[in-house]
């Protein structure tokens, strides 16, 4: 198995501008999945979320040309 080069960056609390990607994902989740849904036990949330992910992950957000 290969090695993944990563690093942790601590950002200021309550500063959404510094965490753009995370905040955009949260906003998309709140406007695409949450509206009009009700959840009873946590298992209900997990089931609905799993079903929704199957549809949401089919959306092509950005395409890049293949690397040669």
Notes on the protein architecture:
It is a single chain. With 68 residues, the chain is mostly helical. 41% of the residues lie in helices and 0% in strands. The chain has helices spanning 20-32, 42-56. The radius of gyration is 17 Å and the shape is extended. The mean pLDDT is 83.
What general form does the structure show?
extended
- Average pLDDT, all residues: 83
Biggest beta-sheet profile: none
The structure class reads mainly alpha
| Binned strand content | under 5%
Question: Got a strand count?
Answer: 0
* Quaternary organisation of the protein chains: single chain
Gist?
The chain has 68 residues and is mainly alpha-helical. Helix content is 41%, strand content 0%.
């Amino acid at each position: 198995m290969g090695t993944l080069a990563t690093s942790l960056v601590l950002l200021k609390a309550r500063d959404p501008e510094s965490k753009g990607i995370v905040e955009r994902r949260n906003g998309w989740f709140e406007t695409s999945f949450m509206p009009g849904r009700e959840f009873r036990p946590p298992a209900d949330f997990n089931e609905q979320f799993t079903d929704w992910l199957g549809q949401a992950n089919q959306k092509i957000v950005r395409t890049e040309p293949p690397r040669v």
